[in-house]
Structures are given as structure tokens and as C-alpha cells.
Amino acid sequence: MKPLHMFSEPYGTTGNISDNFRRLLGAPTLDPLQTVIRESIQNIADAAKLGLGPDIYIRIRKLTEQQVSVLANTVLKDLPNEARSKKEFASLLSQKEPVVMEICDFNTVGLGGPTRADRIPINTKRTDFIDFLRNIGTARDTKLGGGTYGFGKVALYKASKCSFVIIDSQPYDSSSEDRRLIGCHIGHSFNIPENGMQKRFTGRHWWGVPDLEDGVVDPLIGNDAKILASALGFPDRDMTRSGTSIMILDFDNGGEELLTIGNKIAGAILYNFWPRMMRDTPSDRRFNCYLEVDGLPIEIPEPEDFPPLDLFTKAMRAARTESGNNIIKMLSKKPIKELGILAIEHGLRNQRRSLLSEYSPFPKTSQHIALMRPVELVVKYLEGAGLPDTRLEWAGVFITSSEHEVESAFADSEPPAHDDWVPNNLPKGHAKTYVNVALRDLRFHATTQGEKGTGRPIYQSGPPLARLAGNLGSALEGVNGEGAGLIRTGGGGGGNPRPICAKSTSPLFIRLEATKLGTVAVFSTDVRQDNRKRGAQLSVMASIALEGVKTFQLDEGIIIQPTIVSITSIERRVEIMGSIFQLEGEEGTYEIRVTVPKDCAVTVEANVLMEEQI
User: Cis omega before residue 308 (within 30°)?
Assistant: First the structure.
């Protein structure tokens, strides 16, 4: 293989942006690893224009000795004539097994179009290559797309200790001869004395095939590109697997173990892109994500099975269909305009399945609204007030209107990292009003959730029995200082005074059981008699928890009703089938078994009745 040639970008006659390019990303609110994952996949979303959901393959690996040799002798035969860049590349090439990160996409359009920003044929429609590798800050060209500036590429260079990436791309609807490979480094500006003058360079360098006229390098193409990509260990691709692979050389892992980094990446993917990973996301929009670290696959759970995203996915479905337990249309009054849909769901706080608990980006208790535009990429999570009952949590989703004026207002308010909505980024006018009004109302709804009390019935998703049992048990753990166990009556010492009337405690969830009747939830209540032991009967009633109402208040046939299977006296070891237990003046602990319809949570009410009430 012939070595690639390096071209260092000189200053133009009217100047250049120089190494300030490094600062264009601004100050993202996310850490650097989340930023590179977020920005890269956002770019992939904008490139998925083929009617198919993109396959996204992220890999962290160590280059082999042979691959390092190819890198040194074929790609980096020429090095920049700037001291800091030379030092960074020397460090890269001195490593026996340098670490690289690869971010690859398939079923996308790839980097097609012209390769020179100064030579664009008339009627050219696609400029993906020059937008990604040549130009700086190109506006989005995807309707309702994720990116508005194209600054995501800056994050790639920041993730490399030597600010160097190699791009391998197969554009869609082109021949195998259009396979393209090029390297790019963003260093520091520098000067070289020439004919009594200082010739200045911006710090950008490319590696490829030089143009015979001016020496500017174009990408290596065709079979030569394919051979070099294979020699460097890039994933295989051909004309049927269009898309782009990006290799970040000397990946900055911050000194952490690669497996730790892999788990962080899995968390970042879920945290930012779960709406596009849901089971019922349309196939042409669904992200199919794969992650590999040092040769080992890393599982990326489905969001429906990964609390608190299980609750967010319910809110997402409600927002998409505008049908759910708590749907709010956000409106601007002056001018009158629909700004978007807010959906909020309440549920039991399921046990967290942390990919890496110490570094998990997910909150221990969800009390947030996920903000997004119609592209369904999470911009940020707006935190609100938690519910008084720590066994419960809530999740909201707000999707802006797809109407052009509104969607553009929110897109234009985003900083380069696309991780916030900042009204002050907009000039005074309708657009700024839309964003201000939406954020004001969203904050109101987020902060008032905690005022709604714990008695509001709620939906609860229904994962498999064993996991659901563990989740519910964990959600109730710690209640009353004794976990999800029984509330015992006082005894010994001074004791507790007898109640004026016989009564029972509020039933507490204990566990789930698999029976011939299906899934059965077991609740526990304590009965205390008054001094005259007038409590004659324990009467219990079950209902499905819904937002604002209980199912026994609904019309019949709307939903399958839970039924009381039995009541058991723990002390007397007596089980009675049905919802009535004759107390005959006895007190103690009673277990209540109730059927659980699929994808629902049940609540139980218990009352002690006296003879005159029966």
C-alpha cells in the first residue's frame, strides 16, 4: 500500500478560523464521553434517510501490532510540522496497543457528494463529505433533524488525545469505486518561515491522495480505500452496507478500565436515545445499537426493561398517541400557537438495574420531564418535585410541535451541543416567546407533581414475575423503618392504647406469587380491636390503579378487574376464600391475595366492620 500524503491547511488571503475550532463545542452540560456519544449518534440520526432504522455499532479496542505498523507506515508517514502535534503523534505511535473507539453506522447515506469545498458542481444536492470534513458549522439540511450546526464532529476530535480521526465511508447509491477513506487532525496554528515571510497554517491537517494542481488531499477511494480500511481493522462494508465508520485514535479513556467505559457508553446511549430504541418505535426510525469492548459484547437493555425508563416509555407512548393518564397540550396565548404535548405517568419505583451504579446517569428516583423535539432525541431532563411517598415516582415526556415555526424556535434555541433550550439564544419575537412559555409551564407542571399526594391511583407496567416481584419489593423497602414487612402491633412496656373503633392498617404489598389463576399479589394488614372487641368482619376490596380514578368506578368491560382470591389469618392459620373474613373479635395480621391483570398495579383497601354495619 502506498503511504498517504498529508496536507496542512494554510491561512487564506482573508484569514481562517484557526485553532479556535477546538472551542466551538462550547461548554456542554454533559461529560465528554456522553457528549461524543450523543453528538455522534445525533449525526447518524440525520443520516438515516433510506427508510430503514440505522444499525449503530460502537467498538472500543486495542490496535494490533500489525495495525499499528500500517498506521505508522501508511497513514502517518508524514507528520505535522508543529511541535505539539508531533509530540501527540509520537505518543500514539510509541504505544504497543493504542486504544481506539469506532463509531460506525449502516443503512445510512454515508459521506457522499463533492470532496472539495471550493469545487461544487452546479445542481449538486448532496454535500455530506465537505459538510463533515471540510466546512465548519454547516446548518442542518434534514427536516426536523437533530443537528442544527453540525458541531458534533468537534466532540470526536476532543475524544482523541491527539485530536486525530480516520473516516471510512461508503456513500449510498454509488459504486464501490466511491468508497472513501481520509484522516484528519485538528492541531494548533503555526508558522513556517518562507521567502522572508511567515507562512501561517490553521492547524487542520488531512491525510489522503494529493490533487495534482494544488496539493490539497482528497480521500483514498475505491478498492485502495477498502484494503487500507481492512488493514486498520475497520468493520467490513460494501455497497449494500452504506454508511460511515469513524475511528478515534488514542481514545482518551481518562485512565479508566475499558469495561467501565463500555458500561458508561451503554448508559449514555440509553440516557439520550431511549425514545428511538423502544420496541414499538417504527422500524424506519428505530436505532439498532451494538456495543463491543475489547472483543466482548456489552448488553444494551431495552428501555422498557430498564427503570426508570420503563415509566418514561409509557409517557412516550402517551405523548405519541396523545392518549394517556395525564395529557396536557402546551399552548402559547400571545400569539396563539400549540407548542407541544406533555404526558406524565406515575408508577411504583422499580428497582434500578444499573449498568454501572457508581457512574449511572439515571436518577435514583424519577421526578423529571424528558424534553425533545419531534426527532425524538432527548435534549435534557427537567427536574421537578418528588412524590411524598418514596415508593412512587413519576416521569414526563414533552415533545414540541412539528409545525415549522415552533420546531425551529426550539431547535434554534439550542447551544451547539444540543443539550438545552436557551431562550436568550433567540432574538426578541415569537420564537423566543414560544420557548419561554413552554419552559415556564413545564417547570410549573414539574414542580407541582409532588403536591398531588400518594393516594392517586397509578399505572404500573408488568415485567416478568420474578423481576416484578423484586422491583416491587425494592420499591417498598424501607417503608416504616422495617422494609416491606408487616406492621406489628405494639406490645410490652406501656403498650398502645386501644382504638375507639376496631380498625385495620392500610394494606402493604409483600410479594408476588405465580398460581394457576395467574399472577397474584400478596398484601398484609393488621387488625386491632377496640376495648369491646366489636370488630366482626374484615372486608377487603381490590382495584387497578389508574390516574385519577379507580377501576371499580369505571364502566364494566373497559379493563379486566382484579379479584380478591383469599384472606389468611397468620396467627390462626386459617384461609378464607373471597373478600370477607369473619373476625369474631379476633385481631392480628392478615394476608390478602389478589389477582393482578397484565401491565397493571393493584391497590387494596381493607375495612373492619361492626355487626351493625354488616
Answer: yes
- Count up the domains in the chain and report the number: 3
Exposed / middle / buried, residue 491 (Cβ in 10 Å: 0-12, 13-18, 19+):
exposed
Q: Are the C-beta atoms of 244 and 108 separated by less than 8 Å?
A: yes
The Cβ-side half-sphere exposure at 559, using a 13 Å CA radius, reads 21
Q: Are 225 and 168 in contact (CB under 8 A)?
A: yes
Which residues, at least 6 apart from 144, have a Cβ–Cβ distance to it below 8 Å?
373, 374, 375, 402, 407
DSSP codes joined into one string, 482-536? STTS--PPP-STT-PPPPSS-EEPPPEEEEEEEETTEEEEEEEEEEE--TT--EE
pTM of this structure: 0.73
| Whether residue 560 is found in the same domain as residue 527 | yes
- All three cell numbers of 553, joined, read 368506578
Strands 574-577 and 564-569: antiparallel
Give the DSSP letter string of 394-428: EEEEEEE--SHHHHHHHHHHS-TT-----GGGS-T
Instruction: Give the domain range for residue 90.
Output: 5-11+31-116+126-293
Separation between Cα atoms, residue 270 and residue 413, nearest integer Å: 24
Round the average pLDDT of the chain to a whole number and report it: 84
| Average pLDDT for 151-173 | 89
DSSP 123-178: T----HHHHHHT-SSPPP-STT-S-SS-THHHHHHHTBTT-EEEEEEE-TTS-GGG
One domain, residues 279 and 333? no
Helix (H, G, I), strand (E, B) or coil at 606: strand
Average pLDDT, integer, range 247-258: 95
In this structure, the number of other CB atoms found within 10 A of the CB of residue 136 comes to 16
Burial of 42 (0-12, 13-18, 19+ CB in 10 A): buried
CATH number at residue 133: 3.30.565
Q: Tally Cβ neighbours within 10 Å of residue 182.
A: 25
C-alpha angle with apex 211: 205 to 215, nearest 5 degrees?
50
Contact 436, 429 (CB under 8 A): no
Cβ atoms of residues 446 and 383 within 8 Å: yes
* Residue 77 resides in a domain: yes
Distance of CA 174 to the CA centre of its chain: 33
Q: Are 436 and 409 in contact (CB under 8 A)?
A: no
Q: How confident is the model at residue 297 (pLDDT cuts 50, 70, 90)?
A: very high
